[in-house]
Specification:
95 residues, alpha+beta, GIY-YIG endonuclease, three-stranded antiparallel sheet, 4 helices, 3 strands, 48% helix, GIY-YIG nuclease family protein, hydrolase, GIY-YIG_endonuc, endonuclease, endonuclease activity
Protein backbone atom coordinates (compact mmCIF):
# COMPACT_ATOMS: atom_id res chain seq x y z
CA UNK A 1 0.00 0.00 0.00
CA UNK A 2 1.30 3.39 -0.95
CA UNK A 3 1.72 6.04 1.72
CA UNK A 4 -0.20 8.57 -0.36
CA UNK A 5 -3.41 6.55 -0.15
CA UNK A 6 -6.17 7.49 2.25
CA UNK A 7 -8.79 4.95 3.18
CA UNK A 8 -12.39 5.05 4.28
CA UNK A 9 -13.15 1.66 5.80
CA UNK A 10 -15.95 -0.24 7.47
CA UNK A 11 -15.47 -3.11 9.89
CA UNK A 12 -18.06 -5.42 11.32
CA UNK A 13 -17.64 -6.03 15.02
CA UNK A 14 -18.23 -9.27 16.91
CA UNK A 15 -21.69 -8.01 17.95
CA UNK A 16 -22.59 -7.44 14.26
CA UNK A 17 -22.41 -3.64 14.54
CA UNK A 18 -20.47 -1.51 12.08
CA UNK A 19 -17.61 0.86 12.74
CA UNK A 20 -16.50 3.26 10.02
CA UNK A 21 -13.22 5.11 10.03
CA UNK A 22 -10.34 6.76 8.21
CA UNK A 23 -6.71 5.65 7.97
CA UNK A 24 -3.68 5.95 5.75
CA UNK A 25 -2.53 2.41 6.59
CA UNK A 26 -5.40 -0.04 6.33
CA UNK A 27 -3.70 -3.27 7.38
CA UNK A 28 -2.13 -1.67 10.42
CA UNK A 29 -5.38 -0.01 11.46
CA UNK A 30 -7.34 -3.27 11.39
CA UNK A 31 -4.60 -4.92 13.45
CA UNK A 32 -4.73 -2.08 15.96
CA UNK A 33 -8.51 -2.48 16.30
CA UNK A 34 -8.10 -6.21 16.92
CA UNK A 35 -5.34 -5.63 19.49
CA UNK A 36 -7.77 -3.51 21.51
CA UNK A 37 -5.75 -0.36 20.95
CA UNK A 38 -8.02 1.19 18.33
CA UNK A 39 -11.21 3.15 18.77
CA UNK A 40 -12.97 2.90 22.11
CA UNK A 41 -16.05 1.61 20.29
CA UNK A 42 -14.27 -1.45 18.90
CA UNK A 43 -12.30 -2.40 22.04
CA UNK A 44 -15.17 -4.30 23.63
CA UNK A 45 -16.44 -5.60 20.30
CA UNK A 46 -13.45 -7.56 19.06
CA UNK A 47 -12.62 -9.18 16.81
CA UNK A 48 -13.49 -6.89 13.93
CA UNK A 49 -13.55 -7.89 10.27
CA UNK A 50 -12.97 -5.55 7.36
CA UNK A 51 -16.07 -5.62 5.16
CA UNK A 52 -15.50 -2.58 2.93
CA UNK A 53 -12.91 0.02 2.06
CA UNK A 54 -12.41 2.74 -0.51
CA UNK A 55 -9.18 4.43 -1.54
CA UNK A 56 -8.86 8.19 -1.98
CA UNK A 57 -5.98 10.45 -2.97
CA UNK A 58 -6.70 12.96 -0.20
CA UNK A 59 -7.45 12.75 3.48
CA UNK A 60 -10.28 15.24 3.05
CA UNK A 61 -12.11 13.05 0.52
CA UNK A 62 -11.79 9.94 2.68
CA UNK A 63 -13.01 11.75 5.78
CA UNK A 64 -15.94 13.25 3.89
CA UNK A 65 -16.95 9.74 2.82
CA UNK A 66 -16.67 8.55 6.42
CA UNK A 67 -18.90 11.40 7.62
CA UNK A 68 -21.43 10.74 4.85
CA UNK A 69 -21.55 7.02 5.67
CA UNK A 70 -22.06 7.64 9.38
CA UNK A 71 -25.20 9.67 8.60
CA UNK A 72 -26.90 6.64 7.02
CA UNK A 73 -29.22 4.24 8.82
CA UNK A 74 -28.05 0.67 9.26
CA UNK A 75 -30.29 -0.49 6.41
CA UNK A 76 -28.87 2.21 4.14
CA UNK A 77 -25.30 1.25 5.16
CA UNK A 78 -25.97 -2.39 4.32
CA UNK A 79 -27.50 -1.46 0.96
CA UNK A 80 -24.56 0.81 0.12
CA UNK A 81 -21.97 -1.85 0.96
CA UNK A 82 -23.86 -4.55 -0.94
CA UNK A 83 -24.24 -2.30 -4.00
CA UNK A 84 -20.55 -1.33 -3.98
CA UNK A 85 -19.44 -4.94 -3.53
CA UNK A 86 -21.59 -5.99 -6.48
CA UNK A 87 -20.01 -3.25 -8.62
CA UNK A 88 -16.57 -4.45 -7.57
CA UNK A 89 -17.48 -8.04 -8.42
CA UNK A 90 -18.64 -6.98 -11.90
CA UNK A 91 -15.36 -5.16 -12.50
CA UNK A 92 -13.39 -8.19 -11.34
CA UNK A 93 -15.36 -10.51 -13.65
CA UNK A 94 -14.49 -8.33 -16.65
CA UNK A 95 -10.75 -8.55 -15.95
Amino acid sequence: MEQNNHYFYVVECKDCTYYAGYTNNLQKRISVHNEGKGAKYTRARRPVSLIWHEVFTSKTEAMQKEYWFKQLSRVQKQAYIRREQEKQNEITKKL
